[in-house]
Design a protein that fits this description.
heterodimer, A: mainly beta, Ubiquitin-like (UB roll), 5-stranded mixed sheet, two-stranded antiparallel ribbon, 1 helix, B: alpha/beta, Rossmann fold, 6-stranded mixed sheet, 11 helices, 50% helix, globular
């Protein structure tokens, strides 16, 4: 799957089905600091994402707009 | 994950409420939280026009949207900080939002008031950028509301902003700052308009989710000066705490507001005077903004 990260904007490719919660853990991101977006929907931590998905991980922190690392 | 209200697919989990909501029920939850904040603190009435200070970010545009949706009379205020492409883009987001909803947007340039854009102010004064920026914004919001005859300014401060500010004040025991931390600050002087924060009950994850679900086009990029800001470090600490103890930020802020704030209010009573230079309120002879502008002008000579 393609994962788009922000600030700075960059993309990472990840293979294999997994839950959003596991994906964020792998990316070292605290779930409460980002929206995980697929198309026009928001995904909860238990949603399973797969290889053909394009996801945006959008930070929500105002003032700095960065995702918080664990 | 299922919506607590209808059992449909959830879009957002709110761990501190031990709940999840589908998009329509999350929007309903969000609006109820704003309505409760306005009602509880008597922030404004439907007869008043609220000046909403907008930055182009998710919080202030979400606030403006929810107030319009709820039928309040509003007008926008955008303060152009002159921060390179960031300000150009954020201003454009506000203009597009205002035009799409048929709302009036006032634009004030910080450079016109202080003598230089924010990046130059920082160079001229050696004051931390966020400090000079915050001071300028508070001053210009009040001045714009007074000039245009609006009784109240609403800002998009959310629960995370408020908890981080409180954390910073407590860390340094800034007892003068603690009584001023409130979702609603009354007008205590004819030259001071009411200031309210209708989003203080909502986390920034929630305001971002609302903005996304409502299709609001906001600026996601960070302010180039925000990197390394102390308030962000405090937010990150609180986020880690929240991860292991959902509701920690809420309990910290609401506990202060309900149990502790009044005690500091009694200790710290201040007398407001009119600034000898500009006529706006100050606790001294000359207000902090005029001192800042004077410093910028002297450096420019």
């Amino acid at each position: 799957m393609k994962v788009i990260l922000r600030n700075p904007k960059r993309e990472v490719a990840i293979s294999g089905k997994r839950r959003v919660k596991e994906l964020l853990l792998e990316l070292d991101i605290l779930p409460s600091t980002v929206l995980v977006i697929r198309g026009n929907e928001l995904l909860t931590s238990d949603t399973v994402v797969a290889d053909d998905d394009v996801l945006e991980v959008r930070p929500v922190m105002s003032g700095g707009s960065r995702e918080a690392l664990r | 994950m299922k919506c607590r209200k209808c059992g449909g697919g959830a879009a957002l989990e709110l761990r501190r409420h031990n709940a999840a909501f589908c998009p329509p029920h999350f929007i309903e939850f969000f609006k109820k939280q704003v309505a409760e904040a306005i009602h509880k603190h008597r922030m404004f009435t439907r007869e008043e026009t609220v000046m909403v200070a907008v930055s182009g970010g998710k919080d202030s545009l979400a606030l403006w949207d929810v107030l319009i949706e709820d039928g309040y009379q509003t007008t926008g205020l955008y303060l152009d900080l002159g921060i390179f492409d960031y300000s150009v883009e954020s201003k454009s987001k506000c203009e597009v939002f205002a035009a799409s909803r048929g709302q009036r947007l006032h634009v004030e340039r910080v450079a016109d008031a202080v003598g230089a854009p924010i990046p130059e102010v920082q160079k001229a004064t050696r004051r931390p950028t966020c400090s000079a920026c915050g001071l300028s914004k508070r001053y210009l919001m009040n001045r714009a509301a007074l000039e245009h005859g609006y009784p109240v300014v609403a800002t998009g401060h959310n629960l995370d902003d408020e908890a981080a500010t409180l954390f910073g004040s407590v860390m340094h025991w800034q007892t003068d700052a603690l009584p001023r931390q409130s979702p609603a600050l009354a007008s205590t002087h004819p030259k001071l308009v009411r200031r309210v924060k209708p989003l203080y009950r909502l986390s920034e994850l929630e305001t971002a989710a609302y903005a996304f679900l409502r299709g609001i086009d906001y600026i996601v990029e960070e302010c180039p000066f925000a990197k390394g800001a102390t308030s962000l470090a405090h937010k990150e600490l609180l986020n880690r705490l929240e991860e292991t103890s959902p509701g920690a930020k809420h309990n910290f802020l609401f506990g202060f507001l309900e149990k502790a704030r009044a005690a500091f209010e009694r200790i710290e009573e201040v007398t407001l005077e009119a600034c000898a230079s500009c006529g706006q309120v100050t606790t001294g002879a000359i207000c902090a903004f005029c001192k800042l502008a004077d410093q910028v002008k002297r450096q420019a000579r």
